[in-house]
Structures are given as structure tokens and as C-alpha cells.
Amino acid sequence: MNNESVNPLNPKKRLIVVEDDLDLREDLVEYLTRHGYEVTGVGSASEFYLKLVEGNYDLAILDIGLPDQSGLVLAEYVRKNTAMKIVILSARVSIEDRIAGYEAGADVYMLKPFDSRELLLFIANIINRPDPAPSVAKDAASNTVNAKQHEAEAWALIRKDWLLQSPKRDGVQLTSTEFEFILIMTKEPFGAVVNRKDIFEKLDYQHNEYGSRAFESMVYRLRKKTEAMGELIPIKTYRGIGYSLSSPIICI
Fold it and tell me: Helix, strand, coil shares of the chain as percentages rounded to 5?
């Protein structure tokens, strides 16, 4: 990145950088702080949600390829629940990826590598842009309440233990196949339908009647596990097409 000085239009705004590349994250935090912003850096989606509980931000800079949840899911959450502006930084260059970023709620979609001066100008321009209508804007207190509500209502996939936790923090032990299935779902943008064929290929199920029955039996057993603890697993079935998440699942 080029670190030539550019003065932001408003030097008192709070930014949060969500980037799993430590060197890039530290560079961004240092550069934007030097230009007058109050900047927090985190390396995962789970850290991001926790920071929202602790305080409010004016703009989020999001990487898409995070270790525990897609940055597109974060963008959708930010757009639906806060008044934050959104900058997505990504090495994904296809038009489909850029469209997905804007559909998720990005104000700006920037490609890596990027010039820091251009990023700074984008931030200065959009952070001061008024919301289109008063009903869209949310005050700082609302941001905190929504973040706390999300944290309280979120499901969690505990990687090291192969454990799925409900919002009440009750847990069910997963088999390796169940764990991989849920992990596949969390890697897609929230609400996106994951095709059955793609799931079968990733889980090594045969594309025939036997494979379909075996897979559906696995999903049935998984549903029964969560029902036994009084919860409905947040996976929606599109018969003959695929599956989507009905509530976000955070990977930890």
C-alpha cells in the first residue's frame, strides 16, 4: 500500500477492520489511525460480533475470506442491523463476486491489492453520506442492542470439539459428516441456497438413490439431535434443490 498522507473529511469517526491477514490488518489500523480515525482491528467474524457488543462504529472494512464466516454474511448483518457504512476488500475479481458484495450491502467493493490513498478517499466520501431516509438510520444505542441480541441468538459451531451450540448454549456432539455438512453451510453467504450436488461432492456421497437416502438420513438424525434439546436446527430444506441457513451459525 502507498502511505502518502491524505486528510479525511471527518477525523473523529470510528472504524473497525475485519481482516485475517495480520500484517495487512495492522497496516490498515496504523494508516487509518494516523489519518485521524479511531480504528479497531479484528481477525475473525466472532471477534467482530463481540466488538459490536462493546461499542459502536461508523464504518466496517470487511475481508470476505474470514476463517469462521464469510465477510458477505457480516455485510448482510451490518446492513440489516446497523447504520454502519461498509467497504469490502477482496482478491475475488469476478463480476459475480462483486455483485454478491454489493447485494450483501457494500457501499464500496475494492480489489486487493489496493492503494491506501484511494481507500482513504472512499472512506471519507461514504462515511459522511447521509442515509436515504430517517427510518433506515439507527442510533448508537440501537447498534449495541442489535449486536447483543445477535450474540445472544447466534448458533455456534465449535471446531475443536465438533460441537453445535444452540442460542441457549446447549450443545450436541456431531459426527464428522454432520460437522462437515454444517461447516459447508457456514462458508456460504447467509441465506444462500447450497446445491445438493455440491454438498454431495464435498461430503463424498454418491449421486444416486442410495447416496440421496444416506444423506437425507444424516440430515434427519441431525435434526433429531437438536430437537431433543428443544431447538430446531437453523437449516432450511429446498426439496430437490439444496439447503440454506435460516439463522447465522458462527464458527469458533
Answer: 45, 20, 40
CATH of region 154-251: 1.10.10.10
SS3 85: strand
Strand order in the sheet with 14-18: 38-42, 14-18, 59-63, 85-90, 108-111
Chain centre to alpha carbon of residue 74: 3
- Do residues 246 and 167 touch, judged by C-beta distance below 8 A? no
pTM score: 0.54
CATH top-level class for 14-150?
alpha beta
- The H or E element spanning position 242 is strand 242-245
- What do you get for the CA distance between the two ends of the chain, in Å? 31
CA–CA distance, 25 with 4 (Å, rounded to integer): 18
DSSP state string for 151-218: HHH-EEEETTTTEEE-TT--EEE--HHHHHHHHHHHTSPTTPPEEHHHHHHHHT--SSHHHHHHHHHH
Whole-angstrom CA distances from 110 to 107, 120, 207, 238 are 10, 12, 39, 33
Each residue of 135-168: pLDDT tens digit?
A: 333 333 344 334 444 444 578 898 888 999 988 8
Q: Report which residue type is found at 59.
A: L
DSSP letter for each residue of 206-218: -SSHHHHHHHHHH
Low-confidence ranges of the chain (pLDDT < 70): 1-11, 129-153
**Set of cell numbers at residue 11:** 477525523
In whole angstroms, what is the distance from residue 173 CA to residue 120 CA? 46
244 contacts 194 by C-beta, under 8 angstroms: yes
